[in-house]
Amino acid sequence: MKENRIKKVITEMEKENLSQMIVSSPSSLFYLTGKWFHPGNRMIALLIKSNGDHKLVINKLFPVEEDLGVDLVWYVDTENPVEVLAKYVDKDKELGIDKTWASHFLLSLMDLNAAKGYKNASPIIDNLRMIKDEEEIAIMKESSKRNDKTMKDLWSNLKEGMTEIECVELLEKLYAENGVHKFSFSPIIAVSPNGADPHHSTDDSVLKKGHSIVIDMGGVYNDYCSDMTRTVFFKEEPSEEHKKIYNIVREANERAIAMIKPGVKFSDIDNTARSYITEQGYGEYFTHRTGHCIGIDCHDFGDVSGVNHNEVKPGMIFSIEPGIYLSGNIGVRVEDLVLVTEDGCERLNKVTKELTVIK
């Protein structure tokens, strides 16, 4: 197990007067053990105890050859895994529960009166995962570097007459050539006017001269995600209206990034981007939050929104992605990942944000 991370979990548990908690999220299990588990509908539970007597309760279908630094408690399909777990839970103490643990497992544990009480303990690991350590930062920088290269490779290979689906297939191939073998989310490649739907589902729309293209893409490198959006124009200079909209979004992105430093509130970052777009007359067309945290999951816990009044801290990595979406006309989004440093922030994406026409 990642002992330094486990120690931090225990420190946070003690602040919450918890001596035991269950972790079941595959991403959090990877964060703590360095190993991925994909148990499907079978129960897996890492029981963390402040006294160090940790147990990983796991089905024998999922062999573990390496030493994870934790006692393994095996069960088979003919056993009730909750009853197996209950043997190791301190009955007279409160138990922290992972938010992703299936309710039927939790309800069964409650029926067994396995603990004195139950508490959502997910914020403990969620908040720890928000602050990346040096190893994670190095991986995420490399992940974004490869995402940058793949974006530029994609621009170089776009051809008139390609469908959005064909563009995504090309993107997958280019990622593989750059050592990235998995999308971090289903990519969005939306030719106009499809870009006006922020979460457009890629379809057989055809790329033509004069189109704008929203490209929202990310890959997984060494288990950590990248994410970036660029809006470009294809083979023809955009109209003055579309240039204006693009430059407003780009400026909103850059204004938000410029203010990021430790102590600034996520809500104030969101307001910086949103208020500028509103001042320019397009506030009602910016329909989503300004960003989200990212790491092992593309959407880690935490976001850049008007309702998140938490302060940013060194080591946090999140997106800044304002947009304007005019139905039936055009959508523009510009997204970068930023790393909060001791005195400001570092933008992880280096792909140009100058208005770009792909020739």
TrEMBL record:
<dbReference type="InterPro" id="IPR000587">
    <property type="entry name" value="Creatinase_N"/>
</dbReference>
<feature type="domain" description="Creatinase N-terminal">
    <location>
        <begin position="5"/>
        <end position="131"/>
    </location>
</feature>
<dbReference type="InterPro" id="IPR000994">
    <property type="entry name" value="Pept_M24"/>
</dbReference>
<dbReference type="InterPro" id="IPR029149">
    <property type="entry name" value="Creatin/AminoP/Spt16_N"/>
</dbReference>
<dbReference type="Pfam" id="PF00557">
    <property type="entry name" value="Peptidase_M24"/>
</dbReference>
<dbReference type="InterPro" id="IPR050659">
    <property type="entry name" value="Peptidase_M24B"/>
</dbReference>
<dbReference type="Pfam" id="PF01321">
    <property type="entry name" value="Creatinase_N"/>
</dbReference>
<dbReference type="InterPro" id="IPR036005">
    <property type="entry name" value="Creatinase/aminopeptidase-like"/>
</dbReference>
<protein>
    <submittedName>
        <fullName>Xaa-Pro peptidase family protein</fullName>
    </submittedName>
</protein>
<feature type="domain" description="Peptidase M24">
    <location>
        <begin position="139"/>
        <end position="342"/>
    </location>
</feature>
